[in-house]
Amino acid sequence: DGGITQSPKYLFRKEGQNVTLSCEQNLNHDAMYWYRQDPGQGLRLIYYSQIVNDFQKGDIAEGYSVSREKKESFPLTVTSAQKNPTAFYLCASKGLWTGEDIQYFGAGTRLSVL
Amino acid sequence: GDSVTQMEGPVTLSEEAFLTINCTYTATGYPSLFWYVQYPGEGLQLLLKATKADDKGSNKGFEATYRKETTSFHLEKGSVQVSDSAVYFCALNNPGGYQKVTFGTGTKLQVIP
Predict the structure, then answer these.
(1) What is the pLDDT of residues B14-54, one digit of tens each?
(2) Can you point out the beta strands (E) in B16-106?
(3) Which of B55, B100, B108 is the best substitution to test chain A (most A C-beta atoms within 10 A)?
């Protein structure tokens, strides 16, 4: 089945630690996105990528980093510079040339600070 | 820039009641409009979409009509069920932008038996 896989489902970070959230898609989509979701605030865009080896900052990129070495993969690193990382993180992808215009989402990773 | 405004929740309804969740938008050009649903602990799923003015999107008894004159895309359902309890997000995709989707803040719906 085609879809987006996020792992792990739950993640705990210690003070000063970097952690990496995985996002893999087998939909052959060009564009991938990372969102952060906090209660009552909806979704905020962290980073997005439209093509391999290229990515752009979203609205809240500080304290985060990404890479796009393969079309299928778009990992997000939450660095120690992100002082309030506790949130639900969602990865999404979209086909840019399909005319479908729909973002597909993974099941999310819930990150907490120990 | 583009923006989406949704009515604040939570919305609490009895089973079989009529549902309306208001959504208005601000965008240049001709965006596509979407409703996504998020069940507890899960990602977002597309519920319905409309790509041009006067289009009606529908799915699982939910409907929304793209109203360009009022810049609105209100979600409706004639008879809600307990299983409809979730958070609903209105969103737009503006092809003139850099392919990012703009989301509303979400409206939590709770349906009680």
Answers:
(1) 999 999 999 999 988 889 999 999 998 888 999 999 999 99
(2) 19-21, 23-26, 32-38, 44-50, 56-59, 62-65, 75-77, 86-93, 101-103
(3) B100
